[in-house]
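Interim report to the steering committee. The following record documents the input for Acyltransferase domain-containing protein (986 residues).
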Amino acid sequence: MIPVAVTGIDCRFPGAPDRDAFWRLLMDGVVTDTEVPKQRWDIDAYYSAGGGPGTTNTRRAHFIDNADAFDNSFFGIAPVEAAALDPQQRMLLESSWRAIEDAGIDPRSLAGTQTGVFVGIMSSEWSNLQIFDLPGLTSVRGTGTGYFMTANRISYHLGLRGPSVAIDSACSSSLTAVHQACAALRSGEADTAIAAGTNLIMTPALSIFYTQAGLSAPDGRCKPFGRRADGIGRGEGVGTVVLRRLDDALAAGQPIYAVVKSSVANHDGRSNGITAPSRRSQVDLMRRALSLAEIAAEQLSFVEAHGTGTVLGDRIEANALGDVHKTRSGQPCLLGSVKGNIGHTEGSAGIAAFIKTCLALHHRVLPPTVFGDAADPGLRLEENGLQLADDRRELRATGALGAVSSFGLGGSNAHAIVQSAPAATPCRLGRNGVLTISAPSPQALRHNATSIASALRTLDPAQVRSWCRSTNVVKRSHPHRLVVEGTRDTLADGLRQFASGARGDLTSSVPSHKQPAGVGLLFTGQASHYPGMTRRLYATHAIYRKNLDTVAATVEQHLHSDPRAAIFGDDGRLEHTSVAQPALFAVSYALGKTLQESGIRPLFGIGHSLGEVTAACLAGALTVDTAAKVVVARGRLMGSLPRDGAMIAVDLTVEEAEALVAAEPRCSIAAVNGPRSQTISGTTEAVARAETMIRRRGGKVVNLAVSHAFHSPLMEPVVAALRHELAGLTPGPAEFPLFSTVLGREVTGDELTADYWAHHVGAPVRFADAVQAAVRSTSPDYIAEAGPKTALLTLARQCEVPARTRALALCRGPESDGTELLSVAATLMRDGYSPDLSTLYGGEAGPLHRLPPYVFDSSNRYWSDGQVASDRRVVPIAPAQLNTAAARHEPTEYARRGIADGIMSLIAEVGGYQLDTLTRSQRLADDLGYDSLLQLRLLDRLRQQYPQLRHVTVDELLPRIHNVGDLVDFAVQRLEHNGKHNGMSA
């Protein structure tokens, strides 16, 4: 049987609002019963110690807190619909989201995938309260009730395309849901599966039934397998797990709690009563599960039993377990039941037991079972090879096995065998990272920043990079995005500052871009080199190191020495042009390749002097071997010339530079870098005279660290030799646009022949022309410099690069700390892009980490009256009022404003919103939850309120309306048009 990994867990049970709290509750042996809250029902009206007809014999049960809270805006659900939703649907939506995140998956990334949803549910008392209120029955109450909607609601809001099924097999519903989810994965019907269970106690109905059936414990507590077991104590809650085939989970690097080895389901058939359990069926069920898992009974460390705490049920279950385990030769099988802590949670009982089992295997500890003062002697536990787990028990560190049972009141049974997860690959260590959080609103972002900051306090500093990598994958999809980079303490400090209202620069409010970022790449030329180029990056960044090693090995074949020795050495070899040029090529190529491998799309490439060879190579117009041959030959020949040349960067216009070189014949313009940025090249004496002349006039001059007068007539002696050495060079087409700094325009790649590169060494660099042509042609989002310094980014700003185009430095020069690629990642993430951060981080960061769950807003409350609280209603302006305004000849703008206010108030009323929360930019469907039913209801109200719109059809209206402003403008224009035809000024 194909093993299935449990990759994500979320739950909300009595006394435990989340998974970690649930585990603490189990380990501490807490029992969570309370008296029935007044919000549920008046217990005095239904309680009777004797349990007479129509009464319950207990005042207590196990309840979750804040069952009426729901973050409807997070899911784009209008308040009027949220008020009609069964709270079980609301709890499942939030729990599913958190479980998917816990699995290391961005929930939005599952849209359109074959993800299945299987929900166990036993009762929906909300539905009974709502659906039989016939006068108050509305469309939203219809879709807000019913078992079928519990699964469908999840699939709809997450856009899932796999099977979506609600399962009611009574108390075994949610473990049966796990079984069906596993079956869908094993059959290939789903690639990811969400299995869940839910239960909410809203009326005394089932409590009365249990009392009348003799199943209800007077103290409201289950005492599974205990001597004082006297019935069921009811409980409620929701639990969700995310399942994947084990191989898929391992390949994706997902965290794994445990592995389902087998799962089975059956029915008792005809036994001694439809509510009585069948020992034979339970034995058959467990033996089949063992057979499918290919293990023996004695390999099980424990069984998380159904264990309701009824004498009949417990004894039948213990005897059935004995038939399987009594022949064990080793340690007895430990026996436990979560119902002693949180009661019998009915539809969610199976998932509660399953989650306990997975957590026990994950933590390698079986929590104690709360059963009372002593075990029921009638169970004959020792004889049956069983031992009650009355205290914490350590489990095997690897390969531990447990089983979980869930038996339905009508005879439907489920059983699963679960194993501890395989050992995870050790995480790649890294103390710097880029942390991402996102939320639908700034307020929600602050709440979640506080939660993440709190978790950072206990994080191992060496795990920061892999932990941050998980946030990049899981928590990035909402429009309001917070991005912080740095060490653990830097991250935590940034989050705290943001949460307190500062550091707004860390956030953006842009939708996630579906396309990669468009980046124009600039490749540095000579004079930007220095000893130790990218040393820190090479030491810490595996991807860059791999790329530099690869290109260096190719260069070495032509240079006959390892360029890395010159790159990282301090022996002065970089002073020689023959070494400096190949070294610069290797560094720039490795930087550009690393950026490209992260999924960033080069919009264009421009190389300054030597950098043009690098640009052509990265674009595929030259192979790495050919490019290495070009730069080595070029550097060797140029370096063979007499060292009597110099170059200066000057703050002059082109015209001023031309006048200067005309007066100094041994000088020439080597590069046109911008409107007032030129490079002068020539003999040492001539350049010195030019420098003196410029300084006397108050001009600015920078001496460049070069050995020769590049891009000047002084290069002419090597042109023919270079052309000869490169004879036969055959360039290919460029894979992204290349803009030549020889021609000042785009080239396809075919032009880059031996003649081109021979001419290139003496021709002036037309950098400004190339940049201007590239910007006009491509409109980049960013420009990045692939080189050891940021020399070209400043020059490019002078060449018509728009202010909105942001600059990305891949290496800042000698002071570089090797984290620039993380800064690039932070910038792109903050701007709504999602590059492959494993590349920008420098390699795989190991398995994904479990992160703090999303913090939902709990301020909105909806309960069984179905009403939406609003104390600021605005009465729509009726047509009669508009006619009055027109009769008084009031300004048309006033009438328009009145119509707009009226439309806005209708939108608020139909959706259940407060008027002052609405804005024109809010999308009706995505932001306000106006689905097709609500849109039709709104149209009906518009027609009623404004008879002039009675002829407007759905086909005419809906295609034009996307947000609130669209609807307001449509109504204003149509009413104004009708008013003019009726003689109204409005």
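Confidence is low (pLDDT under 50) at residues 866-891. The committee is asked to note this result when reviewing the revised timeline.
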